[in-house]
Write a structure and sequence with these properties.
The structure holds 2 protein chains of 2 kinds. Chain A is of the alpha/beta class. Chain A has 2 domains: about 230 residues, P-loop containing nucleotide triphosphate hydrolases (Rossmann fold), CATH 3.40.50.300; about 130 residues, no CATH class. Chain A has 14 helices and 13 strands. In chain A, strands 7-8-9-3-10-11-13-12 form an 8-stranded mixed β-sheet, with helices on both faces. In chain A, strands 1, 2, 4, 5 and 6 form a 5-stranded antiparallel β-sheet that branches. Chain B is mostly helical. Chain B has a domain of about 230 residues: MetI-like fold (Orthogonal Bundle). The longest helix of chain B has about 40 residues. The chains are: A alpha/beta, B mainly alpha. The interface between A and B is medium-sized, with 30 and 20 residues.
């Protein structure tokens, strides 16, 4: 039995612009002690997925649709009563968030905030809870914990606050820790420290981690398996090393190619053209076809399933059932090089692959860096998406 | 914190001095001759002149100011022109009554206002939220003297006429037979008399606090740390009443200082309407009688109460929000 099994999770939001299908049929599993990375751009649905597991989606406007399943140690959480969910939150499943600066309550001491969960779930006395809080602060590497336990959040730095968040999360020794972009708001040296800490604590406590991030470097460093999300769906999944060495989905390739590398001379950083479409109107067919350099009319017409591709892997791409096209793409790119370097945008050197002319070909050209092809607007986005390559955090070399 | 409060207290001295000066000169600029009040047409002018001299009104304004100020700060508030007894005695009788009314109202304002505001925020967009918003707006726009009269009409007069289970006393601070009641009945009697004036004085201000608290709660409930609290598995009660309320109250506490002057000026109306023997009624009577010493002492006392109230608000502010350090 897996620790966590998410099956066909659909979390929709009713908005004025229509129903936003933020998470739309997502399935994945986490073994006990395993670290799973969920990656994707802003708006791909990864945070909503994590909040859905905690059942912390505000309802309304959010709703987890019937037919979705979230099993935790064999227990179905969808439809579970709130009282039961409260026993699970913070106890069996804990969560840390992106913004350590605002995730702690400013008017209570950090000790109080750690002790609160201990008292709640462990029925500990004030004194025991305080001792536990001091112990946890030491565990997460806060110097002089006996004194710091009485500090207020504003007296701590961002990195220390995230350590406190981790201490809160670990206070009841959860089986599963969900970390939603835990290092995004921190500067690079602190990021590395926090990741190291998470890795060390995981090994020591034997808990599973679901790490949500847009930073592939973080995934490479911490995770065993990776799920790549786009437009509310899983695009590709598999063991981290395999996925990164040989990405099968054009979206994964695009993400890989957008990582700047030291010592690599490129004039321009590769980007995935376009933006994540709006969740109120996902594109038809393959949801990535509006941005995919290899798409053809099948991709516009038919929605691809997640094809199993040997071992533990899967990719939601029609190329999986069209080996002749994949061969052409492979020839043009020199294989899916992924880590080795050449991304979709580097294709320009070889010219577009000779595929039949389709509407999707324009994307191909655009990806290859050819100017002047107007972008048919999928839908107006609710928020400007941030291309991965522009994110200052993405600067760790995956191969390191 | 202690040093800060001491500094603030010292800083309040020039403020209070300025207020006293302002009160003195404004009042002396006002038209009307106190001496004339003792007079009827049959009193000869020499007698009026004698009264004026007795009251010290014949001296130049500057001299009168200095003498008055000197006496004031030695605790000598002088004698009431109209009642012919020490102002201090009058204030001693009136101050506790006003404080009783103000304290009861203040508690009502914040308890009622915060409770309603929190309830509305938790049930945002519900029918109850909408109704309470309208009710709050109704009371917020209500002049307190009219509201007081309506409450008196309904809960004192009509309640009595229509034979309701209870009818509240319309005016006064105690019943006529107060002195003959047992100790327990005495407390009950005073409380009964307190209800209508205190409610009248609170409703307007409580409506404002409710609106404000609701807005603050809705703001706070969206914060990341509320999500953290929920992620810990805390029951919604704890999330709202501990994590959200404490943060929402911080700005509400500042209102405490701002509301004190409103409370005192409201008390003037309410005391007159309900014949409440407090400072508000004293000052109104004194103004009509050109009883300068009483008017000045009472205004001054209101000013001091406001300054002290604001100091308390600042201290509470620091207690509620650890990010605020006064040093």
């Amino acid at each position: 039995m897996r620790l966590l099994e998410v099956r066909d999770l659909r979390t929709y939001f009713r908005t004025e612009a229509g129903v936003a299908r933020a998470v739309d049929g997502v399935s994945f599993g986490v073994e006990a002690g395993e670290a799973l990375g969920i990656v994707g751009e802003s708006g791909s649905g990864k945070s909503v997925t994590s909040l859905s597991i905690m059942r912390l989606i505000p309802e309304p406007p959010g709703e987890i649709l019937a037919g979705s399943s979230i099993w935790l140690k064999g227990e179905e959480l969808v439809g579970a009563p709130e009282t039961r969910l409260r026993e699970i939150r913070g106890n069996d499943v804990a969560m840390i968030f992106q913004e350590p600066m605002t995730s702690l309550n400013p008017v209570f001491t950090v000790g109080d905030q750690i002790a609160e969960a201990v008292r709640l779930h462990r029925k500990a006395s004030w004194k025991e809870a305080r001792a536990r809080a001091i112990e946890l602060l030491g565990l997460v590497g806060i110097p002089d914990p006996a004194r710091r336990v009485d500090a207020y959040p504003h007296e701590l730095s961002g990195g220390q606050r995230q350590r406190v968040m981790i201490a809160i999360a670990l206070s009841c020794e959860p089986d599963l820790l969900i970390a939603d972009e835990p290092t995004t708001a921190l500067d690079v040296t602190i990021q590395a420290q926090i990741l190291e800490l998470l890795g060390a604590l995981r090994r020591r406590l034997g808990m599973a981690i679901v790490l949500i991030t847009h930073d592939l470097g973080v995934v490479a460093e911490v995770c065993d398996r990776v799920v790549v999300m786009y437009a509310g769906e899983v695009m590709e999944e598999g063991p981290v090393e395999q996925v990164f060495r040989e990405p099968r989905h054009p979206y994964t390739q695009g993400l890989m190619a957008s990582i700047p590398r030291l010592g690599q001379e490129t004039e321009r950083l590769a980007v995935i053209p376009g933006i994540v479409p709006s969740p109120t109107a996902w594109p038809t067919g393959c949801r990535f076809h509006t941005r995919c350099p290899y798409g053809w009319e099948l991709c516009v017409r038919e929605h691809p399933p997640l094809f199993p591709i040997g071992g533990d892997r899967g990719a939601r791409c029609w190329l999986e059932t069209h080996p002749e096209r994949r061969a052409a793409v492979d020839r043009a790119t020199g294989g899916f090089l992924g880590l080795a370097g050449v991304g979709a945008a580097a294709l320009g050197a070889e010219g577009p692959i000779a595929l039949e002319a389709t509407p999707a070909e324009s994307w191909h050209r655009r990806a290859a860096g050819e100017p002047g092809v107007p972008a048919p607007e999928a839908t107006a986005p609710d928020a400007p998406a941030r291309p991965l390559a522009e994110d200052p955090d993405v600067e760790r070399d995956v191969e390191r | 914190m202690g040093a800060y409060l001491l500094r603030r207290l010292l800083g309040a001295i020039p403020l209070v001095l300025g207020v006293a000066t302002l009160i003195f000169f404004v009042l002396n600029l006002a038209p009307g001759d106190p001496a004339a009040l003792f007079a009827n047409p049959n009193v000869p002018p020499e007698v009026i002149e004698q009264i004026r001299r007795n009251l010290g009104l014949d001296q130049p304004l500057g001299i009168r100011y200095l003498k008055w100020l000197g006496a004031f700060f030695t605790g000598n508030f002088g004698y009431s022109f109209a009642q012919g007894r020490p102002v201090l005695d009058i204030l001693k009788e009136a101050l506790p009554n006003t404080l009783e009314l103000a304290a009861a109202s203040l508690v009502l304002v914040f308890v009622l206002g915060v409770a309603i505001g929190v309830f509305q925020a938790v049930h945002q967009h519900s029918a109850a939220d909408g109704i309470l918003s309208v009710v709050a707006l109704f009371f917020y726009s209500m002049p307190s003297f009219w509201l007081g009269l309506m409450l008196m009409l309904l809960f004192a007069l009509k309640a009595h006429e229509w034979g309701w289970l209870f009818a509240l006393p319309a005016t006064g601070i105690t019943s006529i037979d107060y002195d003959y009641l047992s100790a327990g009945r005495k407390v009950l009697d005073r409380l009964e008399h307190l209800i209508l004036p205190a409610v009248t004085l609170s409703l307007v201000l409580a409506a404002g606090i409710a609106r404000y608290t609701r807005g603050q709660m809705l703001e706070v409930i969206r914060q990341d740390y509320i999500r953290t609290a929920r992620a810990k598995g805390l029951p919604e009660r704890t999330v709202v009443l501990k994590h959200a309320l404490r943060n929402s109250l911080i700005p509400v506490i500042t209102l405490f200082g701002l509301y004190l002057p409103l409370l005192f000026s409201g008390a003037v109306f309410v005391e007159v309407i309900f014949s409440w023997p407090g400072m508000g009624r004293i000052i109104v009577d004194a103004i009509f009688q050109r009883d300068y010493p009483v008017v000045m002492a009472t205004s001054f006392l209101f000013a001091v109460l406001t300054v002290v109230g604001n100091l308390i608000a600042d201290a509470l502010y620091a207690v509620a929000d650890p990010r605020i350090r006064y040093d």
